[in-house]
Design goal:
Elements (H helix, E strand, L loop, with lengths): L2 H33 L2 H27 L14 H30 L7 H28 L2 H28 L5 H28 L6 H12 L4 E12 L2 E11 L4 H16 L4 E11 L4
Helix pairs in contact: 1-2, 1-4, 2-3, 2-5, 3-5, 3-6, 4-5, 5-6
Length: 292
């Protein structure tokens, strides 16, 4: 399956995320303007940043699906980790802003408004974001998409924020006004931690981190399974975006004709590139000499 075909489910998932965030932004803004609830207004602004994030993810998925060209001979796979970093930065900014709001409210002792409409909006947000998180996570794993996986983590953050707001409003209804800012600070720290985790993961993709030990073992097994391969001298891997490039040195009998050695090398290349996460495999052929 080529890269474009692999990315089709990812594109659908990004569009779903965009539609879901737009829907939440509209209903939150309407309820915030009618009720005057600061919590729901803050939720609306959060959904607006989610729309911006969804657009960035959608663009990155489209760009990463482009085939290699003269200017980008190894493809455009690094586009997705870049959008993942955007998600991480926005998550960190949202977490810091939530800390600021929580501290301000804690100092001022401002009461949280409570009403049916804001309550329903928060419940809809929790249900919608939980569903989006599951869908984006599954699509991200199938498409090997760091951008979608980052969006799924962001959806989890939004569920926590909405749940914290719901608990704060419920606490206010029973007279526990400090519950809202305290929960806000706890949730904000979680969001910052998640943003940091997303950032580290995507920086690793951009910096060319080596593949996992599990994948390296699978690469060696695939190569050694090709008839004519006597052994392996070296296996190097690095990420190019969310996909892996492999450089492998195989041992072939030194008496083997050049054309046959070439055929064996091409078989190894095809076997390695058949793995879902491998984009390119570069095979070097070294002579194998039996020990006396």
């Amino acid at each position: 399956m080529d890269t474009v075909a692999k990315k089709q489910p990812a594109r659908k998932a990004t569009l779903l995320g965009l539609y879901g965030n737009t829907f939440l932004f509209v209903i939150k803004l309407i309820v915030a303007l009618k009720s005057g609830s600061l919590i729901i207004l803050a939720e609306a602004m959060d959904s607006f940043t989610d729309i911006v994030t969804s657009i960035a993810v959608y663009i990155s998925v489209r760009v990463s699906a482009k085939k290699a060209d003269e200017g980008h001979p190894f493809g455009h796979h690094r586009a997705e980790p870049i959008s993942g970093l955007i998600v991480a930065v926005i998550a960190g900014m949202a977490g810091m802003e939530l800390i600021h709001m929580s501290i301000t409210r804690l100092i001022s002792g401002e009461a949280v408004s409570f009403g049916i409409a804001p309550l329903l909006v928060l419940l809809v947000t929790i249900g919608t974001k939980a569903s989006m998180k599951q869908y984006l996570e599954n699509a991200g794993r199938k498409a090997n998409s760091p951008a979608l996986l980052a969006s799924a983590k962001d959806c989890k953050n939004d569920v926590l924020v909405a749940f914290g707001a719901l608990m704060g409003m419920t606490g206010a209804y029973y007279g526990y006004y400090l519950l809202d800012p305290i929960l806000g600070m706890v949730v904000s720290l979680w969001i910052i931690r998640t943003g940091y985790s997303i950032g580290v993961d995507n920086i690793d993709y951009l910096m060319g981190k080596k593949a996992s030990e599990e994948l390296i073992k699978e690469l060696k097994k695939k190569a050694l399974g090709i008839e004519g391969v006597k052994g392996l001298n070296e296996v190097k891997t690095h990420h190019v975006g969310n996909y892996v490039h492999v450089e492998i040195h195989i041992n072939v009998d030194g008496e083997t004709p050049t054309t046959e050695s070439h055929r064996i090398g091409k078989e190894v290349q095809r076997a390695l590139e058949s793995l879902e996460s491998v984009d390119k495999a570069f095979v070097h052929i070294d002579p194998w000499l039996p020990r006396n």
